[in-house]
Fold:
Amino acid sequence: MAKRPADLIYAVDEDPPLMTKLLLGLQHVFLISIALIFPVVIVRSIGGTPQQAEFMVSMAMLAAGVGTILHALNWKGIGSGYLCPSLCGPSFLSASLLAASVGGLHLVFGMTAVAGLFEVLLSRVMHRLRVLFPPEVTGLVVAMVGISVIPVALTNFMGRNGSEAVTELPELAVALVTLGTMVGITVWSRGKLRLYSVLVGMICGYIASIGLGILDAGHLSLFNEAPILAAPDLDHFGWAFDPVLLLPFLIAITCSSLKTVGDITTCQKINDVEWKRTDMRNVGQGILADGMSAIFGGLAGTMGQSTSSSNIGLSIGTGATSRRIAFAIGGILIALAFLPKLAMVFVVMPMPVMGATLIFSVSFMIIAGFQIIMSRMLDARRTFLVGIPLIMGLSVDAVPGLYDNVPHLLAPIFSSSLSLAAVLAVLLNLLFRIGVAKRERFVLTPGVDGSDSIFNFMERQGAAWGARREVIYRAVSAINELFEAVTSSGLAEGKVEMEVAFDEFNLEVEARYEGEPPVLPSVRPGDDDLLEEGAVFSGFMIRRYADSVKVESKDGVCRVRLHFDH
Structure:
């Protein structure tokens, strides 16, 4: 069972009041709406009509609402059971643009549904792929999720788009007011005001935008002209399939799945103080929901859906991770798909407000990612496993145009810093497993070896295995006490052979020597016993450090087995 973090106001299974859920859901919807630009980009790339763009955006909100609800369900193997909202996945953009240029929007819809089917199949074997996703890989993916958003966040924060290369003072003022309000409430407020830090900040940003002329009469006219209620135009529905485009969409859905692994890992960690590793069965349930939302998105007439890392960062910042908020988010998004006038509030969101909101959210994601990475010990192999993908991923944004000439089939991998870093991390993880033994031996000689020898060996092996620091340090302490107990009291006749074995869930240590077995009391010895024989206290401490201890003696050979849960 997960242990509730003390800093959460509403934890994953807690139920906030109805009005609180609606307000929290509303600020999540504001953040989700930023990704609605992707369907517009796809339609504009082929010279589509405003009606086509409006249709794709409406269906994107519908699909995001359904996906968000599916993720929160945790019902019959569907959904991770966390607040993990869905939105238009940036991983799909490159493949969708290619499909639109080849066969129009109907090909985008059909290929998206097929890709979603592949993700559903992938979810069924996800629990068997634990070896691909050690904490350093998932931590890197989580960090890159935030880092990949930085260019978009900063561009919007500074009030720039493709045609504007200069930041105007009013736009910067709006961005600073918005971000300053969010940060100020989160850091200094008391009580439940922290829950609404983003909503209050965005409201202040909208008011400042109106006062400084960023939101003008033209934006208000768009709101006035939009109908209150509208159903989707059935003429825009249609599906097509092209086997040539199967590989780009499979690559896109794989990149999206890697991102989902990182997102759900973050959800698991922020909802459990005692988090140790990624629960891959739970991840599989989340990827199943992800695949189902992608299928629904394609059939409904929009691009692929994936989990929203920015919204997870928002839940960290506000201290509200209740999965019941997801049902409010989903309900609002589904309603907005049929209420164009209300949806227009999100469509006209000022760029500086978008940028400030993204910076607030991704700050938590980046730090959460590096915390996951540093939860394990790192040697040279694992340093390169993190460092090389991080550098190559950053190159996508740091050196624009560097990968413009890659083959179209591989374009989804090189289309973002996140996808490139994630794919490289998985591949390097498999490569660097070569030559790493899961069982090692060393020999301790009384009077020659001591605590330094034990520490250096376990430190080196712990880093090679990517073990948790606290487990390795407990093992070092237990081995030290055992070696002290059997040598100082003359129980060991000669050298002590140590064999250490590791898997992701267990660390096993076996000591073998010729001589008598040690005394390992389960109750703390009295003061008189400690004065007479310090080895008795060492035996007691061994039981305190190890999760279980077993002693065997046969034919003059003693074996002491120490088990540590990992």
